[in-house]
Amino acid sequence: MIANTANQERLMQVILAPQISEKATMLADKYQQVVFRVVGSATKPEVKAAVEMLFKVEVAGVQIANVKGKVKRSGRTMGRRKDWKKAYVSLKPGQELNLMVGE
């Protein structure tokens, strides 16, 4: 029982935020996929379990992409944003995930 509780706490921390962009909206409409920003150490089974637990939907598959941080400059100094990871979550037919908070 203790391991199960620790596992649920881990799953609650895997998903950071939905990634909302034109591409993400197009994927949601056309392929029933949702894009999330996830923790750098997240695995595909963890992301699948987290989405199913948090949103009560059935997940067909998960693809993960590592996004490299952009190089930025401020005056003469060069800096770099952090690398991050995003997950493309495919939902099974008939499943719907509503991320709209205002509605």
Kindly report the spatial arrangement of strands forming the biggest sheet.
Answer: 1-2-6-3
Overall residue-averaged pLDDT value: 90
How far is the first residue's CA from the last residue's CA?
Answer: 37 Å
CATH class annotation: Alpha Beta
Secondary-structure element series: HEHEHEEEE
Radius of gyration: 16 Å
CATH architecture: 2-Layer Sandwich
Helix content: 25-40%
Q: Any low-confidence stretches, pLDDT <50, length ≥5?
A: none
The CATH topology annotation reads as Alpha-Beta Plaits
- The CATH superfamily name is RRM (RNA recognition motif) domain
Q: What about the largest sheet?
A: 4 strands, antiparallel
Structural domain count:
1
Q: List how many beta strands DSSP finds.
A: 6
User: What is the 3D shape?
Assistant: globular
Helix-and-strand structural type: alpha+beta
The quaternary state of the protein chains shown equals: single chain
Q: Determine the strand fraction and express it as a percent band.
A: 25-35%
Number of helices, where a helix is a run of at least 4 consecutive DSSP H or I residues: 3
